[in-house]
């Protein structure tokens, strides 16, 4: 498929996602990073004339997209305490059958996760290339944001977890050194074997704890996050926003359970011009 065709697929997915999950009555909307999000902002602009909606971008690039569309961006830390985003739209580098995502190809994963967890629901928009049965099927590595001083420690720890060749991401010009995030941190890209879902481990397809070389998505995410020096890992897994809210309503959510990392729905723009929607309930249409 040509680049033009891929961009058309992204646009169609964005339009449908906005049609089904955005309302002009919203107060706060999260806006992620990447090329797909440009079409999301375009679709929002076409549907809304409400100047009072405030948009929370996940980085410099997305803030520029919001501003250029004539919408009003605010910093994440300007959100009133306890206020949830009505919705957050973002892309992904890869999505599996359970809606687990790899994000961070654009180096904004930390702020992307902050915004996703602060949203009542995270809606993912992507093209058909990102639709895979398991994570790391096509996308080669897991992005991890780390403090520069901890690079060697984190690289060693990742090798012990089974990553064969974790490496620090360089900028567009290698001679300029490692790429730096909006937090002035570095990104490590860590390859691993294809990741299992929770269903895979329940079926006995692997231990999921790395002892047999196979990791389950959520277990690996937690393990990497425990490494000193890691700010955040680009695996979006566990609860989604609706599930997290249900736990809070039942009094079961701990104080740390503000929201969910996983999307409630993913909109894939397909090669034939259609849009495939996968939802948290396992539906596909």
From TrEMBL:
<comment type="similarity">
    <text>Belongs to the ribose 5-phosphate isomerase family.</text>
</comment>
<dbReference type="InterPro" id="IPR037171">
    <property type="entry name" value="NagB/RpiA_transferase-like"/>
</dbReference>
<dbReference type="GO" id="GO:0005737">
    <property type="term" value="C:cytoplasm"/>
</dbReference>
<protein>
    <recommendedName>
        <fullName>Ribose-5-phosphate isomerase</fullName>
        <ecNumber>5.3.1.6</ecNumber>
    </recommendedName>
</protein>
<dbReference type="GO" id="GO:0004751">
    <property type="term" value="F:ribose-5-phosphate isomerase activity"/>
</dbReference>
<dbReference type="Pfam" id="PF06026">
    <property type="entry name" value="Rib_5-P_isom_A"/>
</dbReference>
<comment type="pathway">
    <text>Carbohydrate degradation; pentose phosphate pathway; D-ribose 5-phosphate from D-ribulose 5-phosphate (non-oxidative stage): step 1/1.</text>
</comment>
<dbReference type="InterPro" id="IPR004788">
    <property type="entry name" value="Ribose5P_isomerase_type_A"/>
</dbReference>
<dbReference type="GO" id="GO:0006014">
    <property type="term" value="P:D-ribose metabolic process"/>
</dbReference>
<keyword id="KW-0413">Isomerase</keyword>
<dbReference type="GO" id="GO:0009052">
    <property type="term" value="P:pentose-phosphate shunt, non-oxidative branch"/>
</dbReference>
């Amino acid at each position: 498929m040509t680049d033009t065709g891929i961009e058309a697929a992204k646009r169609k997915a964005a339009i449908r996602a906005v049609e089904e999950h955005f309302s002009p009555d919203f107060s706060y909307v999260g806006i992620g990073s990447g090329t797909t999000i440009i079409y999301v902002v375009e679709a929002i602009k076409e549907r809304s004339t409400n100047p009072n909606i405030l948009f929370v971008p996940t980085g410099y690039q997305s803030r520029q997209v919001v501003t250029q569309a004539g919408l009003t961006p605010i910093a994440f830390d300007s959100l009133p305490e306890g206020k949830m985003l009505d919705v957050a739209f973002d892309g992904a580098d890869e999505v599996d059958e359970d809606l687990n995502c790899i994000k961070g190809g654009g180096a904004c994963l930390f702020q992307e996760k902050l915004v996703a967890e602060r949203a009542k629901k995270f809606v993912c928009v992507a093209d058909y290339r990102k639709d895979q049965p398991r994570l790391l099927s096509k996308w080669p590595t897991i992005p991890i944001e780390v403090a520069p001083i901890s690079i060697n420690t984190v690289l060693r720890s990742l090798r012990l977890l089974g990553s064969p060749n974790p490496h620090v991401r360089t900028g567009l010009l290698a001679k300029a050194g490692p790429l730096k995030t909006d937090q002035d941190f570095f990104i490590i890209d860590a390859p691993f074997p294809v990741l299992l879902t929770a269903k895979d481990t329940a079926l006995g397809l692997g231990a999921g704890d790395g002892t047999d070389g196979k990791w389950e998505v959520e277990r690996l995410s937690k393990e990497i996050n425990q490494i000193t020096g890691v700010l955040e890992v680009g695996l979006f897994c566990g609860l989604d926003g609706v599930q997290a809210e249900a736990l809070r309503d039942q009094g079961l959510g701990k104080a740390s359970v503000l929201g969910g990392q996983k999307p409630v729905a993913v909109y894939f723009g397909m090669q034939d011009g259609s849009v495939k929607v996968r939802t948290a309930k396992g539906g596909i249409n």
